[in-house]
From TrEMBL:
It comes from Rotaria magnacalcarata. InterPro entries: LRR_dom_sf. This is F-box domain-containing protein. It comes from the Eukaryota.
Amino acid sequence: MVDRKIISCIENLSNEIFYEIFDFLDGCEIYQAFSNLNDRFQTLITCSTLRLKIDLSTRPDSSLEYGSKYVVVPNKDRIIALSWPFSYDHNLGYTLFNIDSSFIRLEILTLRSIRANDLIPLLINMISLPHLFSLTINYDEDPQEISNIYQASFNLSMLKYFKLSFFAFETLLSISINVDKQLTTIKYLVIDHCCSLDELIALLSCTHQLCQLTCEQVNESHKNIVKDTLYPILSLTRISIGRCYANFNEIEIFLTKIPSQLEVLRFNSFSDVNYLDANRWERIISQYLQHLNIFEFQYNEIIGRYLQATIDYKKFEIILMKNDTNFNDDVGQNTEQVYTTISSNYNVDRNKSIRHHRSIKF
């Protein structure tokens, strides 16, 4: 009796409230909960105005076929967001449906653990998607295909956000882009893998509308950077680099040419003490980064067993030395190197002078 009263109360809610509720639910959950309850709910969930967001990547393999056949395929024209896993039985999964022009309202697509021989043809098909503005790819196969993935993704004419994740430990990548043929509409680029600075520059040469750049790891260039190959991206306002192994000379060339409207700069640098030269930073910021408001970086250095480091800032010098007889007892008998982190937050005022706060951790 109580259950019937609850059901009766729920059914008194207006269609508009149900559509607001559906907006917070996954499409498969909507169908599993409301399908075939009664005529009203069946009409609600099949209405052409209901837009569906479907995440199949979190579902167990046993329910993937149901979600694909009975939710995705009949509703291709109503899906606005789709997350699709390729980590299970590929022979079963990829034949369930193809992503093509029938997904006329698809705006956000996430592809997880996808193989190269599936991905490249899929990206070519996706050129026909009229509203796709966000694409996230988790890729973990042949690193030699990375260039082709970028090349095909940059051809998607409506794309505004692109993230490529590549999971490999210390894999040497080789990224090359045909700049003459590639200009993309991407405004938000997330490079979730390592690349050299010259490879990053090659990618940026295709993204003249870029506003925000996030890069997981930037290594030293494979070849000398020529200033004439760098072009300002007038719309670029934010740069974040998770780990920067490029030397400061290269980064200085990069910063003085690329981001003329840069407002936010965040990155972690490694093993080049020149990054701690506040005078040099002040010159770069005052001359080339005149719109910069937020500048944060963390410096990391591997120090020998005697823990000796000299870090120079503007009007600041710190010398760390430990060579007493009890040192090995403190850090471990067999310790050969200690990892030191120096976190610096620089505040840039309007006349581009630098104030900084510092913390050092062992």
